[in-house]
Amino acid sequence: RILYFCIVENVKIIVYTKSDELPELLSGSILHSRVLFEMIEHAPGMSPYMAVALDENDKVIAQLLTMLRRRGSWLPPYLFTQGRIYGDGVYANKEQREELFALMLNKTKRYLHRRRCFYIEVSDISKKMFGYRSFKHNGFFPVAWMQICNSLDEMPPELLVDEKIALRIRNGYEQGVETRAAKDETEVRLFYRQLKAYYRFRPQRYIPNELLFRNLLHNDSYAINVTTYKDNVIGGSVVIYDNDKAYLWFSSAKKHRYPHIHPDILTIWHAIKSSYCAGCKQLYFLNVGLPFEHNPYREFLLSFGGTPVSTYRWFHFTFTWINTLLSKIYSE
Question: Which of 9, 118, 210, 305 is 20 to 30 Å apart from 39, CA to CA?
């Protein structure tokens, strides 16, 4: 079902919510693909919205995928929806990226407002200043964020890790820890339960439904890795392979229960090593957090040889007074 469209300078923007009505999309990014659209479509608590730009001949020239998450809890009690966009979309002509992104962002925002979406979050833009004017024009405000990038095309990751980390990796494997891709849905379920428990009391504690993780297991563009010890899953990660880049989406480990074997270190190490073996040139850690002076998780990740990258996350709240207040708080 086509939900909304307008025509601006011979470009038509259409928002789709059903996979069987999607046109033939552009290839280029798994984060804005039909494959991910269909997985979100069938995942409880989530809905996909694909903004598609068509030229005067109804040929697809750009696309931007938004995940709508329905979030709720009994304690504290809340229920709201959140729009989530990763990256800046796919474009047939790179010279038109800024203009087409502005159109798709505007139509996505207007449609989600009609659906009473509480707020929209956009992250992992290819360049820090990409779309800056478009975001500002549409009422989004930026929050300084931190990413870490591990370059995998210059030298093997073994030559980049801190000596202390390298020693703990060797000791962990010598004591019987195993890191590998998940074998089946049973291991995915065990990892998912651990991941939910790990994020339960953290500020960014939203985890998609387990069905989405099980579907990721059967797609080569994603890797669900597990860390095991004595046949118990004690850690794991979800990595997205997008062309020559990899993104660590989620990770967790029972480091307090098994401090002597450092499952957190081995879990991150396997994500790095497997991305290198897959031929990726960079691995990005998506949720490093705000750029505080003291950030233990950031320092932990940097010990694997990565480089900090300053970026923005863009937010827009449907309620004007909330958006205005937060815009002032986070004004540059």
Answer: 118
